[in-house]
Design brief:
This protein is α+β, with helices and mostly antiparallel strands. Helix 1 packs across helix 2.
Length: 703
């Protein structure tokens, strides 16, 4: 199991990638993920001391803090403390820039001082003020035996510029680099604040109702069955059922729905929702660790531990890209003066230094993780929990969506619509026999029959001697006087009970007693309000195959499929049949076409696990379905599936925009730099400017 740690004093995306790579090679580490976007280390190890030593060996200033300790110091908020001070950085840049202007405006006079010392005093002062952290970082990197990071490359480039007397360029480039780094850090800092705002949903306290009165306490100390009081304007700290009070509740933090919901006694409320208008007394149903908000925070924080293939590619790419550019720079500096007549060493050394400035892959290493985390955050704010950036990528490729029916496309609220009796039985008797047989069942259809029977003036009082539930068929009950069979058409045939109605519209429950057919009950289930909208939105997102798998009968399934315009459906399925049919559908898909399955029940868990993207309906879904799924919808609106796909596509588009932007700009400037068409000023723009543009572009994901 992975443990989370906050990372302190890490301000370099390349360094984060280096630490992650080194930890994954360490014998004491089973798995490690360094998330630069949230400054979090996810690690599975039995020897944290060895891990700390390894991190200190790579980056002596970097430290890790146990999440529990960090939480206590920050009031329970996840994520590392903010380490970027904009005001301090800005003061340093302004002073360095003023000195640089003095050097530029009075260059001639300063150059005429003895040995040109005046020029160098001003220039070096500005240079050191802007670049002291770069120089120190380069020194530490070289001492560790590594040569390929942005600090070393920038140091070589600017010191080399001093050596060939390009003083103004050396100072200007370092200041420009500092400005670019400042703007980049500012953008990353704002992104982190946006990310951290998600984690501020955690309730700080709960008001517990005790015999001695009201007591303010930590939500984690409250247990199921306790009574809490939530005043108007407060965030509900734990999942529960309203005992007293009527109020409007803002559910946007959990479901992404902006319209407040009215709650009354008996209604379920979730941790993280805000009580807006009146006092509520709530009976707690789940401990904090099992509450909705705890699960959301856990999913959001752990999502970055599952990296998309694009992120993994960039990490590997950066490992080889920078050394390759350094080798190219050496060739540019040395080969032309050696083999081409008339070429001077100074000219080609300058061009090589330009290439070194360009080579840092920060634009990719920073912006891509930020892009994916922005996508996960945007989905969370809309009530869609994505368990990893790899699943965002998978969502973007979904072309086939398979739905379960009951509770997914339909409301799952069953009502008895019609009772049909055969000769020798009354409608009341048929309903009573069915209700008696279903007494011990919690299935929604069974509950609808029991609810309907309770409205009748009399009831059967036979005592049940034996109860058998046959999966996918129905129930067989033996009482003191009768044997009652209640179930689908297949059950009647299996028990060799003669009946004249095999196919009726809707969900049909057949009833027989002592081997004689008594009649049938028609159960009605309604389509969800946005089921048709969901299908339309999926079509608009390019999903060209929408299907349904259900355990319900053929006629009920056909009615839903035709109402929604589905491409295909399969009815009367047992859980194992669903898996088999889904396997067949997956095997027939074209290359790179992803298949998503959307379900809510415990019997959907095997199919959710098999799907490229398993989507669970969280509000009514079973715990098994939610645990197994890759994406959890916090509302019961199937249209959220299309929203999730749209967010996945938008995230992938922005990530690839960043990749193409960074590589294209660098390729162009490397080519121009090799032929002397650009100088160091342009090179710094190619490096820091591209990184800044890519980071700003990544922030569009969460807009």
């Amino acid at each position: 199991m992975m443990t989370k740690y906050d990372i302190v004093n890490l301000d370099c995306a390349n360094c984060a990638a280096t630490i992650e790579s080194a930890l994954n090679k360490h014998p004491a580490v089973k798995a490690a993920v360094v998330d630069f976007a949230t400054l979090t280390l996810h690690i599975e190890t039995d020897n944290m001391e060895a891990v700390r030593r390894e991190i200190k060996r790579i980056e002596p200033e970097v430290d890790i803090v146990a999440r529990e300790s960090a939480d206590r110091h920050r009031g329970g908020l996840g994520g590392a403390p903010e380490q970027f001070s904009a005001s301090k950085q800005l003061v340093t840049i302004v002073i360095a820039f003023v000195l640089f202007l003095v050097q530029l405006l009075f260059e001639q006079q300063l150059h005429q001082t003895p040995w040109g010392i005046g020029e160098y005093v001003v220039a070096v002062s500005a240079y050191l003020l802007a670049g002291w952290n770069v120089l120190l970082g380069a020194l530490r990197t070289i001492k560790k035996g590594r040569l390929f990071d942005e600090n070393v490359l920038m140091t070589i480039a600017t010191v080399g510029a001093f050596a060939i007397h390009a003083v103004s360029e050396a100072v200007g480039v370092m200041i420009f680099f500092k400005v670019g780094e400042f703007l980049q850090n500012l953008a990353v800092s704002r992104s982190r604040k946006s990310i951290r705002s998600l984690l501020e949903l955690k309730p700080d306290s709960a008001t517990l109702k005790t015999d001695a009165g009201l007591k303010r306490t930590d939500p984690e100390t409250v247990r199921p069955g306790d009574i809490i009081v939530v005043r108007a304007g407060e965030r509900i700290p734990l999942d529960g059922v309203v005992e007293d009070g009527v109020s409007l509740v803002n559910t946007a933090a959990i479901t992404g729905e902006p319209v407040p919901a009215t709650v009354r006694p008996g209604d379920v409320v979730l941790a993280g929702e805000i009580n807006t208008t009146a006092l509520l007394t709530i009976k707690v149903t789940k401990a904090y660790a099992d509450s909705s908000i705890a699960k959301i925070l856990d999913l959001v924080e752990n999502a970055t531990a599952r990296k998309a293939k694009t992120e993994q590619f960039v990490t590997v790419f950066a490992r080889y890209y920078t050394p390759a550019v350094v080798l190219l720079s050496m060739c540019v500096a040395i080969l032309p003066p050696l083999f081409v007549s008339g070429q001077t060493l100074g000219t080609w050394v300058y061009r090589a230094l330009v290439l070194l400035v360009i080579s840092c892959p920060c634009a990719l290493v920073i912006s891509i993780p930020l892009g994916y985390f922005g996508g996960i955050g945007a989905a969370s704010r809309r009530g869609i929990l994505v368990k990893g950036s790899n699943f965002l990528d998978a969502l973007a490729g979904v072309k086939t969506v398979v739905f379960d029916k009951t509770g997914t496309l339909t409301k799952g609220v069953f009502r008895v619509k019609e009772t049909v009796a055969r000769i020798g039985y009354s409608q009341q008797q048929v309903l009573m026999l069915a209700a008696l047989a279903e007494t011990h069942s919690n299935h929604p259809i069974a509950r609808s029959i029991i609810d309907a029977s309770q409205q009748l003036p009399s009831r059967l009082h036979d005592e049940i001697v034996d109860h058998q539930e046959i999966a996918g068929h129905g129930v067989k009950v033996t009482t003191e006087a009768h044997t009652i069979i209640v179930g689908n058409d297949a059950f009647m045939h299996r028990e060799s009970i003669t009946h004249d109605t095999c196919d009726a519209a809707g969900t049909v429950v057949h009833v027989a007693t002592d081997g004689v057919y008594a009649g049938y009950i028609t159960i009605g289930d309604e389509l969800k309000d946005d089921a048709l909208k969901a299908v339309s939105m999926l079509r608009a997102e390019g999903v060209d195959d929408i299907s349904m798998l259900t355990g319900d009968n053929e006629s009920a399934a056909k009615l839903v499929a035709e109402s929604l315009g589905l491409d295909s459906y399969h009815a009367g399925l047992l859980p194992e049949d669903k898996v088999r049919l889904f396997e067949t559908m997956c095997s027939q898909k074209k290359h790179k076409r992803k298949v998503a399955f959307v379900g809510d029940g415990i019997n959907d868990a095997p199919v959710l696990a098999r799907a490229d993207v398993g989507v669970a309906m969280g509000a009514l879904g079973s715990d098994a379905a939610i645990e197994t799924a890759d994406v959890v919808l916090m509302t019961d609106h199937p249209s959220k599936v299309a929203e999730a796909i749209r967010i996945g596509k938008r995230t992938r588009l922005i990530v690839w925009q960043n990749i193409i932007l960074a590589l294209s700009v660098k390729a162009i400037f490397i080519s121009f730099g090799a032929f002397g068409l650009v100088g160091m000023w342009e090179a710094v723009f190619a490096d820091m400017g591209t990184a800044l543009l890519a980071v700003l572009n990544s922030t569009r994901v969460s807009a």
